From TrEMBL:
Annotated NCBIfam families: nqrD (TIGR01939), PRK09292.1 (NF006777)
A single BP term in Gene Ontology: sodium ion transport
Record HAMAP family: NqrD (MF_00428)
Primary subcellular site in the record, as a coarse category: membrane
GO molecular function: oxidoreductase activity, acting on NAD(P)H, quinone or similar compound as acceptor
Protein name: Na(+)-translocating NADH-quinone reductase subunit D
Organism encoding this protein: Brumimicrobium salinarum
Length: 229
């Protein structure tokens, strides 16, 4: 029997095989791009003051990573090795332009708050890392799953950090007061009882501390993630 016939008769891998499922589930926890690989920390510091900003940044990264991985995977056999990084940058830059224009058109207030950080998605090491490490050597469908897993893994950490910082720093979620009114002379809810927002939480260094706490909790729950000396 020829090699070609053997390949034709070999059973095809199911679309959602155990291997493919792990492409989505591993980055959510055990191989999270932020807490385990320690990538994409810049945006975790810069735009996690409010949940709204973190949410839209997450959506932007998901879009760029999924379509970027797909395009790179489709072109992987056509891209010369010597210029692959340049091609990847062109792809991600084109997608970021689409995201930026869409945000300006549909959510201009958010676009103004995110400012230059949307453009910096181009240099996000998570995205470029997945292009180079996975999409360049895998078929489109697994590449999409890999992008979805890593993007959502990035997103939930980003939103969680923003949630902690906004609640403790501003007493709000998505801009809505949750502890009452804290206007001088019109205090209500917890503020009427003397509660005061922790203004330190809105400073960029606190994002790093929150991420550090998440890393500590994650590794305390899963000892396999703790590096040996």
């Amino acid at each position: 029997m020829s090699t070609t016939e053997e390949k034709l008769k070999a059973p095809k891998e199911p679309l959602f095989s155990k291997k493919n499922k792990r492409l989505i589930t591993d980055p959510l926890s055990d191989n999270n791009p932020i807490t385990i690989q320690v990538l994409g920390i810049c945006s975790a510091l810069a735009i996690t003051v409010q949940v709204e900003q973190a949410f839209w940044m997450s959506i932007s990264v998901i879009f760029v990573m999924v379509f970027g991985n797909l395009i790179v995977s489709l072109l992987r056999n056509l891209i010369p090795s010597r210029v692959r990084i340049i091609v990847q940058l062109v792809i991600v830059a084109s997608l970021v332009i689409i995201v930026n224009e869409s945000l300006q058109a549909f959510v201009p207030d958010v676009s103004e708050k995110l400012s230059v950080f949307v453009g910096l998605i181009i240099t996000n090491c998570i995205i470029m890392g997945r292009f180079e490490a996975f999409a360049m050597s895998n078929k489109p469908f697994p590449s999409i799953l890999d992008a979805v897993g890593n993007a959502i893994g990035y997103a939930w950490i980003l939103v969680l950090v923003a949630l902690v910082r906004e609640v403790l720093g501003s007493g709000k979620i998505w801009g809505a007061n949750i502890f009452g009114n804290n206007l001088p002379g019109e205090e209500s809810g917890l503020y009427a009882l003397g509660y005061v927002n922790n203004n330190l939480m809105i400073l960029p260094p606190m994002a790093l501390i929150v991420v550090g706490v998440i890393i500590w909790v994650q590794r305390s729950m899963n000892k396999e993630l703790v590096e040996e000396n």
